[in-house]
Write a structure and sequence with these properties.
The chain is an alpha+beta fold and 187 residues long. It has helices at residues 5-19, 28-36, and strands at residues 23-24, 68-69, 74-75, 120-126, 147-150, 166-169, 178-179, 183-184. The protein has one domain (5-50, 99-184): paralog of FGE (formylglycine-generating enzyme), CATH 3.90.1580. The chain has two helices and eight strands; from the N terminus they run H-E-H-E-E-E-E-E-E-E. It has a four-stranded mixed beta sheet with strand order 6-5-4-7. Strand 2 (68-69) and strand 3 (74-75) form a beta hairpin. The chain is globular. The mean pLDDT is 90.
Length: 187
């Protein structure tokens, strides 16, 4: 994706102009609530040891295909631990080595796709300590604080894709595995 938080905010403004109704990034609390889809487990489909292949595009055995060599890079047939060094959960194979189209995996009970894996997602929220407080300014559009990313990506193992796992990046920083999910208010 390689999109910054600032670009994601500009996209929301552009959507508002096109649709004529409010559009924003989800707050960190909204994102986690949607991701959990009524469950209390680490991932909406189970725990960290659940086979994620039907549900999420995460770092799995197929990442071995990124161990390449040559001028026209080709996968190394039997890579050594020095050639195949990317962290992964090699017990599972979701069938995709990098990002794939949205909706390629089963949705949550609430019909949401790719809440875990594929691309991490920007939230509206600044990275501040818990307990979460909506009124502490963390969801303001101003400020240069680091912004929260949730969900994990094709490059992350299940522990980094948990509903509660959070990372932070500078708002101006485009990140290779971070995308955007927007919230459009229901009428």
């Amino acid at each position: 994706m390689r999109i910054s938080w600032l670009e994601a905010i500009d996209f929301c403004k552009w959507m508002l102009e096109k649709l004529g109704q409010p559009c924003s990034l989800p707050t960190e609390a909204q994102w986690e609530w949607a991701c959990r889809a009524g469950t209390d487990s680490d991932l909406y489909y189970g725990g960290k040891d659940t086979d994620f292949a039907p549900f999420a595009n995460l770092a799995d055995v197929s990442i071995k295909l990124l161990a390449v060599t040559g001028i026209n890079p080709q996968p190394i047939g039997n890579p050594s631990k020095y050639e195949d060094f990317l962290p992964k959960d090699d017990r599972f194979n979701d069938g995709c080595k990098i990002m794939t189209k949205v909706g390629a995996y089963a949705p949550s009970a609430w019909g949401l796709y790719d809440m875990h894996g594929n691309a991490s997602e920007w939230t509206l929220s600044s990275y501040r300590p818990y307990p979460y407080n909506d009124a502490d300014g963390r969801n303001d559009l101003t400020g240069a604080e680091k912004k929260v990313v949730r969900g994990g990506s094709w490059f992350d193992r299940p522990k980094r894709a948990k509903s509660s796992f959070r990372l932070a990046y500078q708002p101006y920083q485009p990140v290779y595995n971070v995308g955007v999910r927007v919230v459009i208010a229901a009428e």
